[in-house]
Amino acid sequence: METTKIDLKLTIQEMKKKFGTPFFIFDETKLKKQYNLIRQAVPNEVSIYYSMKSNPNPTICKLLLDEGASIEVASIGEYRSLQDLGVQHQTIFTGPGKSRAEVRTVLENGILCINAESLQEIKVIQEEAKKLGITAPIALRVNPNLSSKGSRMISAGLPSQFGIDEDQIEKVIEHLLAFENVQLKGLHVYQGTQNFNLVSHEEAIKKMFSLVRWVQDRFEIELSLLGLGGGFGVPAFLEEKPFDIRSYGAILGRELKGNEDLNLQLVYIESGRFITSEMGAYVTEVLYTKKSHDKNYAILDGGTHHRAFSSLMGRNFKQPLPVSVIKKNAAGLEHKAKEEQRYTLVGKLCTPTDIIQSGVVLPEVDPEDLIIFPNSGAYGLSCGNVHFLSHEIPREYLLQKDGEISDVSWL
Q1: Residue 194: which residues within 8 A CB-CB, separation 6 or more?
Q2: pLDDT at position 387
Q3: Are 377 and 55 a contacting pair, CB within 8 Å?
Q4: Predicted pLDDT of residue 192
Q5: Residues 62 and 26 sit within 8 Å (Cβ to Cβ)
Q6: What are phi and psi of 125, to 5 degrees?
Q7: CA distances from 161 to 15, 35, 211, 360 (A)
């Protein structure tokens, strides 16, 4: 099916008239483009797991499954969504705080692998697997010692609730091999999110292949799985450049070829924000404008309860990506005002922390104008405090490849 050429601003204006605001709109074409950007960059032998936490909308998950992705979950709620899609047997379960009941649920209903993050967790998996009379497939999430840094949210090489420190791996495996109802399938790493640094990615890849080789030699066992993480950076500020996924793929290809003798059956990377961020826009309407102590405010009908991460970016000293304005009488065209003003964009929450973005230079805005926030396909509603003050939850819409709009709301 060919993609129809669409005037997105006109579409958004029509949606506002029909559905009201605020709302999220997801572009199917952009979603698939981003996924296939990774697929074409990395070797065919490498599987891509979608990190469901970035956008757990079932329609988005189904579209990515149809494109060939697998899915990684980080909660029992995400797992149950995959049960509804009938693909829970293909998934990987990660996260540092899996409860005993959650472990039992995934073991009862099928799971490809559980990424274990502590010896205590492994003991719980062993106990629940024994009760069920099965062998649980697990991988160890490693917190490796890495020298290079590149992520805003580093979770490797530092004290962390995530993973097992590299210098503890030997002792943990010694304990694990004494358990009868767990099978060590492999190793997993995730060094941090929003990582633009190819050097740190390369170091982590080399480290993990080396650790697999060391484990196989040290314990005379065969591992079949290696998870190499992701966290590929997505520009959120003007000075940031897109992550070089092609160079990453070339690095991964070289290391994969150099370690063919390990005979790994599954080597995978994971990605969430990189796949979903650019497909989404968050559309709000200006309710009021006001000036307070020489500072201009635009009060919107949305807020940080819909995009939790935006409250952090709104206070960042860097310049965020620009927002778009659609004037109420501009026939869908961006208004070119003679004068621009600096605004603080705030939401409707009764709290001074509800700052969506500050220091935004815009054409003069008026009530009923639309403000559109780009890169809103990841960490939106499911990451926000949507029940705070009991405001209505925005709808989520999908702009399909044929130009049709469908309501894909699920919360």
Answers
A1: 151, 152, 153, 231, 233, 234, 236, 273
A2: 79
A3: yes
A4: 76
A5: no
A6: -60, -45
A7: 43, 29, 20, 37
CB 383 within 8 A of CB 308: yes
How many C-beta atoms lie closer than 10 Å to residue 108's C-beta? 12
Q: Are 35 and 278 in contact (CB under 8 A)?
A: no
Inter-CA distances, 211 with 40, 124, 148, 167, 389, Å: 27, 25, 18, 11, 49
Angle at 266 between CA 263 and CA 272, to 5 degrees: 150
Nearest to 383 by CA among 279, 272, 275: 272
Please give the Cα distance from 146 to 211 (Å, whole number). Answer: 13
Phi-psi region of 157 (alpha: psi -120 to 50; beta: other; left: phi over 0): left
Q: Which residues does 366 contact at the CB level (< 8 Å), separation at least 6?
A: 286, 289, 327, 328
Show the low-confidence residues of the chain (pLDDT under 50): 1-4, 151, 153, 313-317, 332-335
Task: Give pLDDT, residue 298.
Answer: 97
DSSP string across 28-69: HHHHHHHHHHHHHHS-TTEEEEEEGGG---HHHHHHHHHHT-
Q: Are 267 and 228 in contact (CB under 8 A)?
A: yes
* Placement of tokens 């403000």 in the chain: 371
Which residues pair with residue 51 across a beta bridge?
A: 72
DSSP E strands: which ranges in 167-263?
182-188, 192-195, 225-227
Q: Which two tokens stand for residue 308?
A: 């939790």
Q: For 147-200, what is each residue's pLDDT tens digit?
A: 666 545 455 556 567 778 889 999 999 999 999 999 999 999 987 788 999 999
H or E stretch at 25: strand 23-27
